[in-house]
C-alpha cells in the first residue's frame, strides 16, 4: 500500500506524476516522481483545463507537490476522514505541476484504453 501525495489516501497503486522540485533541481534535473490517486488526478486535471495559462495567478503561495513559492491555483480535493467520511479541502498547485498532472492524466487514460482492448 502507498499513500497519495495530495490527499493521503492509502491505495495499492498510485499514478506517477513527474514534478520539478526547485530544491532538488541539481540532483534530479529531470524531476522526481510523486504519486496521486485517481480522484486527485482528476481534480487537478480539471483545474488545469480551467486555468488560462496567459493569465498569471493572482494568488501567491507554496505548491503542495513541488514546494515552490510562486503563483498557485486552488485544487479542490476530497480527503478521506474517519470521523466525517469525506472532507473537501483546497490545496495549492503551481502551473508547472498542473502541466505535469495533465501529462500523467493523458498517459493514464491511454493505458486504461489499451487495457480495455487487450493491448500490451
UniProtKB/TrEMBL annotation:
<dbReference type="InterPro" id="IPR018288">
    <property type="entry name" value="F420H2-DH_FpoO"/>
</dbReference>
<dbReference type="Pfam" id="PF10621">
    <property type="entry name" value="FpoO"/>
</dbReference>
<protein>
    <submittedName>
        <fullName>F420H2 dehydrogenase subunit FpoO</fullName>
    </submittedName>
</protein>
Amino acid at each position: 500500500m502507498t499513500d497519495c501525495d495530495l490527499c493521503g489516501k492509502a491505495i495499492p497503486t498510485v499514478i506517477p506524476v513527474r514534478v520539478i522540485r526547485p530544491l532538488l533541481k541539481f540532483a534530479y534535473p529531470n524531476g522526481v516522481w510523486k504519486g496521486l490517486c485517481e480522484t486527485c488526478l482528476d481534480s487537478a486535471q480539471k483545474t488545469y483545463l480551467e486555468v488560462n495559462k496567459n493569465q498569471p495567478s493572482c494568488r501567491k503561495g507554496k505548491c503542495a507537490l513541488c514546494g515552490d513559492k510562486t503563483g498557485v491555483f486552488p485544487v479542490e480535493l476530497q480527503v478521506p476522514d474517519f470521523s466525517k467520511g469525506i472532507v473537501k479541502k483546497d490545496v495549492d498547485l503551481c502551473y508547472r505541476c498542473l502541466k505535469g498532472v495533465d501529462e500523467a492524466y493523458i498517459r493514464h487514460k491511454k493505458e486504461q484504453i489499451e487495457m480495455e482492448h487487450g493491448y500490451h
